[in-house]
Amino acid sequence: MANSGFENGSFEKQVVLVTGAASGIGKASAELIANRGGKVICLDVNKAGLDEVVAKIKSSSGSAVAKVLDISKQDDVFKCVNEILKEFGTIDALVNCAGLPGPTADFVEDIKWPDYERVLAINLYGAIWLTQAVLPTMKVKKYGRIVQVASIAGKEGNPKMAPYNTSKSGLIGFVKGVAKENAQNGITINALAPAVIATPINVNTADEMMKYMISRIPMGRLGEPNEVAEIIAFMASKACSFTTGFTFDISGGRATY
C-alpha cells in the first residue's frame, strides 16, 4: 500500500468522510486519501458511482466503504454521521466536495426560487449540517480537519450564476467564523476555491459560461481533479496544523489573494 512518505501527510488509522465521492474532485480526493492510508467513507447520491470508486480503492489495497447520502436533507445528514460514528468509532476529517452549479445562463430576476433554493440546500445548508454533525466528536478528542470545497465564484462571482455565487460566498464566510470558534480545539476548518475544473459537474454548464470562466484563467486551461485532490489531502491531514479559517486558491492564477 503506497504511502505519502511523510508522517503528517499520512492518513494511517484515520477515518475520513468524503462527500461527492462518486465523481470529480470528490472521487480524486477519496482515492488519494485512501492511497495514503485512510479509511475513506465515500458519500454521494450516486450509488453506482460510489460502488465504482470503492471497488477501485479496494483493488489498490485501500480501505473504503460507500454510503448513499443526499446532503440537502438535514435529518439524513445527522443520521448518517451518527451511524458512521457507531460503526467506526471516530471521524478524523470531513472533506465536503458535494456541489451543484444550478442555473448558468439566467439573469437573477429570471431564476425560479425552487432552483435557487436547491443550490443553497446542497452547497451551503448541507455544508453547515455536515459541520454541525462532525464537530462534537472532534471537540471531544481535540482533533479534527474540516475541508469545504467552495469556488472562485465565492470570491469574484460569475455572471448569470447567482445561486452558485451566493452559496459559495456564504460557505467561505461560514468557514471563517466557525474556524475561529474552534481554533483552540485542535480542529482546523478551511475552504478551497477552485476555478473551473474538468469534472462532470460542468456537463450542463452553458457554453458561453464555460468560455467566460476559462478566459478568466491566466493558465488558459481547466484544472484537473487530481490537482485539486493534492491540496485537499494536505488540508485534511495532520500537516495542516497552523492554518484555519483560510480559503486556499487553486485557480490557475485567476485569484491571487
Structure write-up:
The protein has one domain (9-250): 3-Layer(aba) Sandwich (Rossmann fold). The chain is 42% helix and 15% strand. The protein is built from 7 helices and 7 strands; from the N terminus they run E-H-E-H-E-H-E-H-E-H-E-H-H-E. Strands 3-2-1-4-5-6-7 form a 7-stranded parallel β-sheet, sandwiched between helices. Residues 1-5 have low confidence and may be disordered.
Q: What structural class should be given to the helix and strand makeup?
A: alpha/beta
Total domains, how many?
Answer: 1
Main sheet: strands, sense, barrel: 7 strands, parallel
The helix tally amounts to 7
Mean pLDDT equals 95
Task: Tell me roughly what share of residues is in helical segments.
Answer: 40-55%
Q: What would CATH call the homologous superfamily? A: NAD(P)-binding Rossmann-like Domain
End-to-end separation in angstroms reads 37 Å
Taken in chain order, the helices and strands follow as: EHEHEHEHEHEHHE
**Judging by the overall fold, what is the CATH architecture?**
3-Layer(aba) Sandwich
Give me the side-by-side strand order of the main sheet.
3-2-1-4-5-6-7
Rg computed from alpha carbons, rounded to a whole number of angstroms: 17 Å
CATH topology: Rossmann fold
> How many E-type strands?
7
Strand content: 15-25%
Which stretches are low in confidence, meaning pLDDT under 50 for 5 or more residues running? 1-5
Which descriptors apply to this entry?
seven-stranded parallel beta sheet; disordered N terminus; alpha/beta; 42% helix; globular; Rossmann fold; 257 residues; single chain
